[in-house]
Design a protein that fits this description.
25-stranded parallel β-sheet, 13-stranded parallel β-sheet, 0% helix
Length: 456
Amino acid sequence: AVTAAVGKILIAVGTYKTSATINLQSNSSYNFTNATFFCSGAIAYNHLTISGKTNIELIGGILTAVPGTSPVSGAHPTGTYYGGTGVQIQNSSNIKVFNLSISRLFGAVNVYNSSYVMVKNCLLSDNAGGIQAVSDNTYSGNVVMTGIQFHENIILHSGDDALTFLVRNTGRIFSSSICNNYITKDAGINGTVGQSKAIALYGTFGTAVNAIDGVNVSNNVGYYMGMEFMRVHGVARCNFIGNTVSSYAALGASNAFQFGDVTLPNLGVTDSSIVGNVASFQITNTVAFALNAATRCMFTNNYASTSIGGEGCLNCASAVGCIISENVLHNTLAYGIRLDASSTQNCVASNDLIIFTALAISDLGTANKKDLNRGYISTNQGTDAVPAGASTKIVSHGLTYQGTTNTHIIITPSSNSFTATRWWISAYAAGTFTITTDANPTLGDFTFKWQAIEDQ
């Protein structure tokens, strides 16, 4: 029937037990809305394969395993799965996959070396793998992939990363998107949780360098993640907008959102926007956002609540030239924002940072500009006096930064020094400075205005 349907619409109704892959044909439409396909379970074949084809529309259908059959060899460690992949797309273009239900298979949807592929509105449950796009020169076809869209899918209990863009060696993925998907209890069968990610962008494997370019990841929702909700490295000029995760790090310390990695070269994030994302209710000690090996990125309007990791709500490692502004980072037992010693020339401005047991901002780097952050005072001013009858006055400057270097104090006298002829700043300690005069003013208080500025 598939062979005869080239150039037509094939409608399948009923229940089918397959023993080999069904190879879909170019320039065809397949409506399997009222069809169920069971695999025999003894052989790791793919239910539906699209290889070297163009212009295919696949709508509906249930792809699953025969209950009680034996698993294939190499069963995934997170559970028992049967058969091969639900839909395998390779070296193809202009492919649409809509409204499928795929469960208990070793893989759900694999897209290799293909372009202009949309996977939308599918329900994937208890599969070893989720939906992945892989650019890899070990497979046939053009390794430069574009127009990949994973939209509005529901993924439950995926053994591996639920939604993945992966580049190996000389490949590239660009101008693609992962949007409006819902992922829960990743990396476990029958509702358990495990260590895989909901969304993973791996742009650096082998010789590939920042090989994911111009990708939009937006409005995805995750709930009850074992580890990270999102892990990203080796990307450039990408947007991560409006993604939300609640209840994460169930299995141990991890980040809700990890952008970049400093452990290996070429794992950074460059010229990308991270805007309007939300991380709330971690289950164990963790960091809400990590911004690592990031260059010229914008991190703005993000929200983190109840983050209790030792490195705080936002941890920056080797961040250079980034704008970190207008974020709301609350309720942590550590830092609001932490910049490590390799972070430099970042602008940290207008963030709302309150309820911390450590500093709202811990800046161990160099030339980082901090200004107008609620919960962190980088400039302060006031008035005070050396009173008649004394020759010194200790003034509390109120800056959040408590170091004894990198602070500039400006004194402007507002009265006569009376019997004193000279005055100077004689001491500077954590949180205070001392004004000393060469004599007791005697006739009246020596008043002055002061301004304290953290040098940046």
